[in-house]
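Box 4.2: Ligand-aware structure prediction
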Amino acid sequence: MSEPPNDASVEHWPLFGLRLRCDNVLLRPVQERDLPLLAAIQPPDYEHDPSAEAFPAKIWRSIGGVSSTRATGALGTWSPSSWCLDFAVEHDGALVGVQSLEADDFLDLRTVDSGSWLVSSARGRGVGIAMRTAVLALAFDHLNALAAVTSARSDNAASLGVSRHVGYRDNGVTMNLSGRGLAELTHMRLTAKDWRASKAGERVTVRGFDPCGPWFGRPLPT
Ligand SMILES: CC(C)(COP(=O)(O)OP(=O)(O)OC[C@H]1O[C@@H](n2cnc3c(N)ncnc32)[C@H](O)[C@@H]1OP(=O)(O)O)[C@@H](O)C(=O)NCCC(=O)NCCS
């Protein structure tokens, strides 16, 4: 497994030392140095948050697009109850996408949400399932989450396929305004009980979590 960087960034921001592995897929938090490559490979079919601030295309590219604004914004607004962790996804040693895990009012609701994208050449080979499984293991087996929710356009078969594969159940549909007009979203939910029954967490290794405890409102281990 790729070693956490041995530099001041981990000392001051222990989350940068987190490493999640599921099968041959490695997740590590996005750092500023990843942004140019992520901006270059981010696929056009990734659904941006339509409420996010829009920049002219040239500036948008130069600041690294949505991956950059999300990842750097999340550092500045982090709190133990509301946070967003963007992981760079490596497969066969190459950076192929991003998997996010986020929560609002986590200390009360103990519910996480997720989002992801992969370059097209990495899709359809189980990488999407592995990277979602990895962040679910962090949520359920280390952060003590009670549930994970996710939403995708009802015509996004691959995203919904990942959710179904790892055990989410249907949780209703809503109509939403997206950047491309009106869209039907399918919502899905996975409970901690179903997660544990699936034993999917056995495929995941999490390293570097202990010093991150306070970032999630948990004490440091004694
Ligand atoms: C969503 C995404 C990350 C999934 O990654 P992936 O590597 O393609 O997914 P996987 O190969 O791991 O698994 C996809 C699952 O969906 C299923 N699936 C894919 N296309 C399907 C289709 N057209 N109909 C039914 N099932 C489908 C696959 O069979 C597989 O399930 P299975 O293993 O149980 O058979 C990737 O497709 C992507 O980047 N899409 C564009 C961005 C995006 O839509 N992100 C999500 C926004 S909510």
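In the box above, the bound molecule is coenzyme A. DSSP finds eight helices and nine strands in the chain.
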